[in-house]
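ping. complex inputs:
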Amino acid sequence: MDELLERCRLQGLRITDALQTILQTLFEADLPQSMQDLEAHPTLSKICDRATIFRTLQRLEGIGMLRRLNFSHTGAKFTLNTGDMHKEYLICKECGEVQELQMSCPVHALEKKIEKLTKYSAMTHELTFYGLCPRCA
Amino acid sequence: MDELLERCRLQGLRITDALQTILQTLFEADLPQSMQDLEAHPTLSKICDRATIFRTLQRLEGIGMLRRLNFSHTGAKFTLNTGDMHKEYLICKECGEVQELQMSCPVHALEKKIEKLTKYSAMTHELTFYGLCPRCA
DNA sequence: ATACCTGCAAAGTCTTTGCCTTAGG
DNA sequence: CCTAAGGCAAAGACTTTGCAGGTAT
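pong. complex structure:
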């Protein structure tokens, strides 16, 4: 957590209550959070408003600390960017439940290949699985 | 194309001008189309309005004829669902250019495994690559 | 004839901005 | 101090819906 703040500081961000609380929230949440999740967060909702959350997320994404995930149906969600490693998710098409998948990235090597092949740079990818959870099936 | 219409008919959809033109457009377009792309389409824009496009896409997706792709930045796009096969795409983070990737699906087998492991059914996935195209880099 | 479709316009839903104030470094 | 960050309210950008009238089957 302190390390995260340090990274922000080095990138020139000011350490405000909003910033700290947003980082804290994302840090504690084991699943990606949407703007709305954050707006509804008991602590966060008290100390800052929508616009601040929005702009803070924007800044954090800007310095590469956040990964933005674009899930169908549920809209964008954010999660802390922890280096090379990243997780893939499984979403229920019906109720929107998000589940983290335990596996190493199956397309990492492929990504490099595409980078060479297409002359695109700064490659990243998003891999998301969708299905019906047992309850909704 | 006739086969597509036949599938619609069998599913109980009425063969209207809007339906035919939308299918035609998606059929001819080699890349996924967004609501806005379709609204701006010279032919389509003349014969029906936004709401009709929206509802027609909804119906087509409902009977499994469309695949909805949720790309970052650019919003949802649609492409005809051609059986088991599906394509993956590479998007430029800067200008939004969409490029089709020539490869067989690298996570098909994995999908089955996850299906068993998680008890989710009707599994699908979305795999999209993002990068900076040569011009934007 | 009768569901199903459509157009228009309006209501939603989120995301994003402008502008002036506050406060971190 | 000086500039980044925040609050509030309003503008945007799309997506979605209600309702009255049209049309495929």
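Chain B has a mean pLDDT of 90.
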